[in-house]
Amino acid sequence: MKRIIFILTFFVCSFPMLAQDLDQYKYVIVPEEFEFSKEKNQFQLNALTKFLFEKYGFETLMKNEEKPADLQENYCLGLNAKVKDNSGLFVTKLVVQLEDCRGNIVYETQEGRSREKDYKTAHHEALRNAFSDIEELNYSFNPGEVSAAAPSSDKQPQAAEKAEVAQSEPETRAPEATEDVETPATAPTEQAEPAEVVVENPMIDNESAKELEFEKDGTSYFLEKSDSGYSFFQENSEEPFAVLAKSGGENSFLYKSLTRQGVAYFGEDGNLVVEYLNEENKSVKLVYKASASQ
């Protein structure tokens, strides 16, 4: 009898945090780069992570974004999003984790898997599959439970945590600056890559470009630059039908229209690529070809 009770207790304690426990957290914070990535927002995976958390009801921020006042006051209102790569030789495997302000993993999904050969396609499919667990949580923020996560008697640890966060931000910037300086000296071949991107895709870094023209299925479209990203227009239209908001890297955007939400980015050939989930929860990719006149 004791053995049965022990086994049941073990399995109950092994289950990930339930949905009602996650409801006490208000924010999910997504990093610009995951630990297994080789660059910021590799495969647009960080932008996709932010999009999927927002799709399933979470208020989501990129780590480099300005934090809301209540999150600055109580960092324990937020959870840090992490993606763990368990990939093998033929199968891409990703696990989504949520870490609280004390560094504890409070939720972990099952492995999302993909056998696609293309790296980007495989990572996107595996991540979406992992998020099926998060979809089933039916998350909804419950402010009545916030005090349980961060009691007022714990002010000093919170202050220390906020101080650590404040100190960590400049420390993370310093290595980036160092890498920028070292790159030309230590890896001359990498210096040519940004130059190629600028030539092939001038809309990414060209601050003087106000409008960018595209074509799809015989219809002309154009992007108009704004402070937050771009407004997307169809020809002869005075109002944009979608917006592209900056997200993470310079070539990564959140795509929002009246009927669709997804991610967008510029391909190396200058084309605008939009990816979103349709009503059947299947991935759809739209490619708007850059105008030859640009």
TrEMBL record:
Q: Which domain of life is it from?
A: Bacteria
Q: Does the keyword Signal apply?
A: yes
**Assigned keywords, A-Z:** Signal
Low complexity composition-biased segments: 183-196
- Signal peptide annotation: 1-19
Region (Disordered) location: 143-196
Q: What is this protein called?
A: Uncharacterized protein
